[in-house]
Amino acid sequence: MSRLAAVVFDVDGTLVDSERDGHRVAFNAAFEEAGLPDHWDIATYGRLLRITGGARRLASWFEQTGRSPDDARQLAERLHARKTAIMRDLIEDGKVQARPGVHRLLDELEAGGVPMHVATTGTRAWVEPLLDRVFGPRFQIVVTGTEVPDLKPSPAAYDEVLRLAGCPIDRTVAVEDSRNGVRAAVAAGLRVVAARNEYTRDDDLSGAALVVDGFEDPELVTWFQQ
């Protein structure tokens, strides 16, 4: 792996399978606390994931279900803050874990002396405690949607990691799971490895140099070793 300058990971759906049993659960708990009838089942939440950013996802949902744009935005902002707090509790309780095979890949990269970073559009309020609890001090630079508000497929988060790390683009690889994530990394000039999850199995990931069904796929480790 000596040819690699760095590997930059997405978080949601990539490092952790956090969407279905993390964020979705937190959104539904926030709805219930607020006395709202809204509820996102697994399939509905999968469709809503096409909209990046939790607050934007909420606002779009509220507009679709009959609220005015202003009411939708204000309610989304209020509920998103509560949802983030609930997500932090889920993380603290160990409800969000690494995807199978992730730690093995991180061990391989660490043993090879390859710096690892994070580029996510999730907010630092939950991303930081998640990374600390599940992965420890593995990642050198962590850029979140709190610092870079331009959400994927914008390459802004990746551009900021590259700027801070100073790593050459042609020797840096991104690891993603979704169409928007792959588009963001490719727009930043990076080669991308895409590890699909349950929600992104039908995404167009054609911009990736390698597409696998998960981190336990031996082709993924072989690709990095070569």
TrEMBL record:
Among InterPro entries, the record links this protein to: CbbY-like (IPR044999), HAD-like_sf (IPR036412), HAD-SF_hydro_IA (IPR006439), HAD_sf (IPR023214), PGP-like_dom2 (IPR023198)
Q: Which UniProt keywords apply?
A: Hydrolase
GO MF annotation terms:
hydrolase activity
Name listed for the protein in its UniProt record? HAD family hydrolase
